[in-house]
Amino acid sequence: MNELMDKIDNLKNELDSSSLVLDIKEIQKKIRMDSHLMGLLEEYSVHPRDEIKSEILESNLFQEYKLKETELNLFIMEMNQRLKVISKKGKCNHESH
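The structure corresponding to this sequence follows.
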């Protein structure tokens, strides 16, 4: 069991240090430093209006974030597919004769 936990920790560390995750963290930092964009995001969370949403979506920083977020989601989906294949290989096939 300890070996499994070590492997999971190693995987987490590898993911955390991947360029994709580091890019997302950097963009998040830039977004937090952009007072105008943060104000729009906060305003939209309280009063969701199309005008605010449009302005948020026009932000290059927000677009960059959404692109990286999509890449990360696709990566996660790919990993899930691989894990399904691995888990199927580990199961015994019981065939009735």
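The longest helix spans residues 60-89.
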